[in-house]
Amino acid sequence: MTESKVAPYGSWKSPITSDLIVSGTIMPEQIVLDGEDIYWAESRPAEGGRHVIVRQSPDGRVTDITSPSFNARTLVHEYGGGAFMVSDGTIYFSNFADQRLYRQRSGSEPQQITSGTNLRYADGIMDSKRERIICVCEDHTKQGCEASNTLVSIALNGDGDSQVLVSGNDFYSSPRLSPDGSCLAWLTWSHPNMPWTQTELWVGEIMKDGSIGNTRRVAGGVDESIFQPEYSPDGVLYFISDRAGWWNIYRWCDGNVESLCEMEADFGEPQWLFGMSTYSFESANRIICCYTQHGIWHLASLDTRTSQLEEIKTPYTSIAFLQASPGQAVFLGGSPTEFDSVIRLDLSTRKPKVLRSSSEVTVDTDYLSIPQAIDFPTEQGLTAHAFFYPPKNRDYTAPPGERPPLLVMSHGGPTGATSSVLDLRIQYWTSRGIAVVDVNYGGSSGYGRAYRQRLQGQWGIVDVDDCVNSAHYLIARGEVDPDRLAIRGGSAGGYTTLCALTFRDVFKAGASYYGISDLEIFAKDTHKFESRYLDSLVGSYAGRGNLYRERSSINFIERLSCPVIFFQGLEDKIVPPNQAEIMVKALREKGVPVAYIPFEGEQHGFRRAQNIKRSLDAELYFYSKIFGFELADPVEPVTIENL
């Protein structure tokens, strides 16, 4: 065995390069079962982030369904999801370029079935009885007005004309048809609520003319979030609710709501995307579901007759987009040593099979840092959560007495959550000798409603405190160097990053990926889905405008004296480029070291391989100059002003 080399933290040579990370990498998403065929969507950075629908047939053959000239991606809510559906071998999908719906039969090219402009579609289901699709429609045809959202039906036997079925509220999702086609269930909410704060579950009868009548609210309302309604094969309506403090499974039976399995675990998650699924029916008597506790996801079988829950042991700590059919479950699963992959689990043998991995890369586990779940003290005597990744590289050790730099990661959302699944973008840092702590600050999902509500009115405070306290905790344990602390985050995590750098004197450097620097601009200039999100995170802008100014880092540049690097997509509609550009200009004029890397053609989140590579390498180069360590390999330099 080769003796380890001694080199300073940050200077270790790593096989986990940015080229390796983007090579052969895909991002699997929505999963659909159709008979014996398994479909999923995957985003491909090497193809400019194009979303491709893929099918595995019963003989095991995997085939691209979407031709190269199409991109199966919807922009409803800007974040999209639920962009395709399958019925008896025919695929229906939203095409990114024109946001129209297309039908693609086996062996043929896609045919356009909607023709309107400025209309977007998502979350479709087939109403075979009436030869139509029922889906969410987002209408942007009225210039200067907020988009309108409705549930519509789209005829398949004519010219694709649509009929509005349900309207009047600001948002809709999850239309679900009863097995006999007589009833439709759906979720709805209105400003200023978000789907994880307050939603309602409604049911209506489908009338002879196809319209919806005799509607009634089944569940939801004040302080209750409903997630993923589904009809069982025998016609009972199930759903997930956090009415008891955790997202648990319920059903509506004979006009009454019944709890199936009360436990301190979340079976649901924030509905940022359409098409999310955490449970599915293997049969009328058996639900295959997943739930999270302490940041770890588990797979289970739930008997609908006895409410008995049995955990199904798997190696996976992250599970998403779960679907089931008799004898099998298919889901996206990953672990600290396995990439997110499309997994098929045989329910009789309980043996998993990888159908498609998000990466074809093979990395020796001796270069992988295994995350440690940590609970640490934070403000007001509370506890927060994170995953800590110590430096790991079999070829290197650090000089005696040296402690590693720490990179604090603040996830987006902010009502999202980080997981322990293998992510080479984290291992990129740890294999070079940089410790990482990935923080599930107060407001993150997966720890119950009360934990999510810690951020209510406290954005820019609780999240920042928890990120700061994660660093203090690791310093106290002697794990990291207190003089080399950095923080990074994207979107809402970028806001937390900029607040931490501005309002706390802890971090020595930071990286903002399409982060928010001015809450007032964000409140006035963002898309509909999040246009009132800050009402719950900060307060009503009309009544609490002072808070927006007080929690905007752009207004307190005099307090920011450490270097920052900014990354920004120039076509970002969620956090427009001016958010970064205003901050960069202010830091430049103040004389603080600053770097700015904009990407043409990128939106919210980078999808192109060359831009993912460039941002990783640029951030590493930036830290090497700020913290004074030599890089083991040359990377493309970054212009750092005022250095």
Class computed from helices, strands and strand pairing? alpha+beta
Shape: globular
CATH homology superfamily name of the largest domain: Alpha/Beta hydrolase fold, catalytic domain
- Which bin fits the share of residues in helices? 10-25%
- What number of structural domains do the residues give? 4
CATH class of the largest domain: Alpha Beta
Regions with little confidence, pLDDT below 50 for 5+ residues:
none
CATH topology of the largest domain: Rossmann fold
Number of strands: 38
Cα distance spanning the termini: 42 Å
Q: Hey, roughly how much beta strand do the residues contain?
A: 35-45%
Number of helices: 10
| Strand line-up in the sheet with most strands | 30-31-34-33-35-36-37-38
Summarize the structure.
With 643 residues, the chain is of the alpha+beta class.
Write the layout of secondary structure elements.
Layout: E1 5-6, H1 18-22, E2 27-34, E3 37-44, E4 50-56, E5 62-64, E6 84-87, E7 90-94, E8 101-104, E9 111-112, E10 119-127, E11 132-139, E12 148-155, E13 162-166, E14 171-177, E15 183-189, E16 200-206, E17 212-220, E18 226-231, E19 237-241, E20 248-253, E21 256-259, E22 279-283, E23 286-293, E24 296-303, E25 309-312, E26 318-325, E27 328-335, E28 338-346, E29 352-357, E30 372-377, E31 383-389, E32 396-397, E33 406-410, H2 424-430, E34 435-440, H3 449-452, H4 462-476, E35 485-490, H5 492-503, E36 509-513, H6 519-524, H7 534-537, H8 541-550, E37 564-569, H9 578-590, E38 594-599, H10 609-627
Parallel strand pairs: 1-32, 33-34, 33-35, 35-36, 36-37, 37-38
Antiparallel strand pairs: 2-3, 3-4, 4-5, 6-7, 7-8, 8-9, 10-11, 11-12, 12-13, 14-15, 15-16, 16-17, 18-19, 19-20, 20-21, 22-23, 23-24, 24-25, 26-27, 27-28, 28-29, 30-31, 31-34
